[in-house]
Amino acid sequence: MPTLTDYVLAIRTEGSPPAPEGVRTVDLVLKEGDVISSTVAAMRNSGLTAADFRSPAIFLAPAGRHGLVTYAGLCGFAGRRIDAYADGTILRFSRLHHDGGLFPDAGEPDEALVWAQVGEPFADGVRCVALGPSQPGLVSPEAATVIRHAERLRMVPPDSSRDSLAMFVLVAALRRRSDDRFPFLSTGEEPVPVAEDDPEQGIDLEKVRQEAVRYRLEQGEDAESGSHHDQRIREADAVDIRTLLRRLGSSSDGPDRDEWRCPRPRRHWNGDEDSSMHVYSDNRARCPGCDAEKLGPIRLALDVLGITPDEAASFILDSDRVVDMCAVREDA
Predict the structure, then answer these.
(1) Which of 15, 127, 256, 270 is disulfide-compatible with 116, CB 3.0–4.6 A?
(2) 144-180 pLDDT, tens per residue?
(3) Among 219, 242, 268, where does a domain finish?
């Protein structure tokens, strides 16, 4: 069972529990004003860098739903889900797949859903659905359709810190396509939306994520450039991505070995029998159904295996282990 001392970095915000002794701690101090700008400013002022997330990191969530905005920003900055500690429980979100393709839906809605809501209390004038133990597999097909296809989604989380984070990660997975589409953090008491970009619908967690991504890109090279960490990442990213694809159970159909079966068959309705992943001359690959952009070996291993960058480098450089991800769909 994991413990907090397994982590190298603990990230706190106002109201968070203390980190255990010996674990590096970063405090994000949010100032008054616009919550989105304040969240990104807190990350800037804390000194966090992208390199910090190469090792196991965990967010120590405050009580209630108040940590969701910070967590959304951290996911954007890290480029992946990070683990969280909430209500005395370690939530290993970093090990989960980013997308919720395994949850069946009821098909595309008959009419375009500009706004919808997940969570209670239900609001008049907005299409609302619920999650929870009363729903088949937590998410009914009807709820999955609404969450997945709504252009804008309000999310009303439960009061529990643990349950609100779990709901957010599930909803974000259901909404993900080639990239994330985070929901709005809502109370359920906002007025009926009058436009697609109605500013009165809560806190736009997708905007929080995008601003955090922008900050990460602004940083350019990490402060640890030239360090052992950085060298390991570069070495792993230089390994032929075709070698990694074979170790992930993928195979190539064509003689030029440019078209490969995606090693994430669960995200494809047919297990990606059509070999949709293309390998490019710059040692990167992209599946149009799974990836918003081309991925190098490190990022591909991160996404497929749900591991940290350090773990991805070790998998690529220090091991010849084969993890046949393509067999998962066939054996299901």
Answers:
(1) 127
(2) 999 999 999 999 999 999 999 999 999 999 998 777 8
(3) 219
